[in-house]
Amino acid sequence: MESKLVKGATGPVYLDALEIRKQVFIEEQGIDPALEFDENEDFFTYFVGYDDGRPVVTARARRTDDDVWLVQRVATRSGYRRHGLARDLFEFIEDEAKKAKIKKIRLHAQETAEPFYFAMNYNRISGPEMEAGIVHYWMEKEI
């Protein structure tokens, strides 16, 4: 898998991220587009993983403290789940975070994704909470 990133809401990588998010969050999970696409889009770095040139997995991240990244909008296209692609993208994200002197990654995980994050050594720090009608837990990992 090839991973790419772009800072801010611009360019083909960002558009690929939007397409994946639309498919997963809006079409599959029924999330309101007004909740999915917010006024903060331009403040994030977008990560997209490509399988044979096709965008299949995405996430976005932004610095919230000097040494903390908040990772959000993690999504994998339905036909590509459970193939290790999200794990590969997270390895790329964590490598980029280390380059940026980030020491901790924090995320608000959907309950169904918690086992995935536990397997990558993320720890639950609070929850449950409802977001967009879906149970979420705050999780984090020291990197």
What does this protein look like?
- With 143 residues, this protein is of the alpha+beta class.
- It has a single domain (2-106), classed as 3-Layer(aba) Sandwich (Aminopeptidase).
- It is built from four helices and seven strands.
- The protein has helices at 11-28, 33-36, 85-99, 114-119; strands spanning 2-7, 45-51, 54-65, 68-76, 104-110, 123-131, 134-142.
- The protein has a seven-stranded mixed β-sheet, sandwiched between helices.
- Helix 3 links the parallel strand 4 (68-76) and strand 5.
- The radius of gyration is 14 Å and the shape is globular.
- The model has no long low-confidence stretch (mean pLDDT 95).
- This is Acetyltransferase.
- It holds the Pfam family Acetyltransf_10.
